[in-house]
Amino acid sequence: MNDHFLVCNVGWMDEYDGLGKGVKIVGGASFIKDKGWGNEIYNFRRYKGRFYGGLFPGRFKKRYKDINISNIGVLPDHDKIHGVTVIWTAPRRPSGGTFVVGWYKNATVYRTEQDAPPGSRRQIPKRKSESCGYYVEASAKDGKLLGTDSRTLKVPRFKKGGMGISSVWFAHRTPLGRKFLQEVTPLIQKGELAVNKKLQKKKSKLSLPRQSDIERRQKIERLAMEATTRWYEERHYTVVDVSKFNRGWDLEARYRSRNGGFSLLLEVKGLSGDAISIELTPKEYSEMLNHKDNYRLCIVTKAENKYSRTLHIFGYSEEKEEWLDQTGKKQLRVLEMTGARVVVQ
User: Dihedrals φ, ψ of 69, to 5°?
Assistant: First the structure.
């Protein structure tokens, strides 16, 4: 990776692919609160194999401010710089804190706002004749948007040397910023956070039975629970097994920070094959609908094979009004079933 970094704070969205019915952007610049949109709403919408990243660096005399790219390695008379790693961050609501949501590698950063490419479908909401501009562009293959559950790397903010109120942070210029870049670099290189080292010696505390004569179904469920627990713990969640309490979910993944935290409700299903088809109890389905914001359906396929075992995490997307996996590519199709109880009078 290169040595040029730029950290840009934007509003929080699941997919950054435009606004629509039920799709909102929250946090970020005060402009978003006033207008209900920002140029970043299209930051991960592909156009001809590229991403175009918008942000709000502030206004000066009715125009957007420039980004002082001289701080990342070009002369004052240059209008752009190539080969920059741009880290996108956003404030999580309502739990608080600012977290890394994605990045562009090998990006071009412009000093001034650029007009949207013709045909790129970056219209300003309710002003279809105008388009959202951008300051950053990169090949889509060099961009990465983290799933919402993987956004756990916190950004130091409102402290000496950390990110301030500005939406642009030249992190390499302070000791605290350089420490943050050291933390985020493995995430960018591998696409995920570095594994929590404490897990290597940690034994599973799951309450499921482990007798040698356990039936295959129980074994598959146990392996699925363990795989799901490890995935969230590696991302610095605290995972608690609540399966014995019949709450409508099996695990609770809790993330705590100085400014608060949040919890995810995880219903776990294990499968021996790779075809995803599961059944939910009436209780599980009811809770899934009642807690759409933080309910996750975690399905482990090929659970018995440690080499091909795969965890699929589905959450509800308000933007798409569908249950989607963390990549946004797989969609759940729910078939409601009606049952009955029959008694003899």
Answer: -70, -10
The architecture in CATH of the region 197-325 reads 3-Layer(aba) Sandwich (3.40)
Decide which of 202 and 220 is more confident.
220
Q: What six digits make up the tokens of 328? A: 């946004």
Can you list the positions of beta strands (E) in 115-178?
A: 123-124, 127-131, 134-139, 143-145, 168-169
Helix, strand, coil fractions of the chain, as percent rounded to 5: 20, 30, 45
- The domain limits of the chain are 5-190, 197-325
Tell me the whole-structure pTM to 2 decimals: 0.79
Q: Longest Cα pair distance anywhere in the chain, in angstroms?
A: 90
320-335 residue pLDDT tens: 788 999 887 788 888 8
Among residues 214, 207, 217, which one has the least CA distance to residue 304?
A: 217
pLDDT digits (tens, 9 = 90+) for 206-262: 444 333 446 888 999 999 999 999 999 998 899 999 999 999 999 999 988 765 688
CA distance to 30, 157, 168, 345, per residue, from 161 (Å): 23, 8, 13, 76
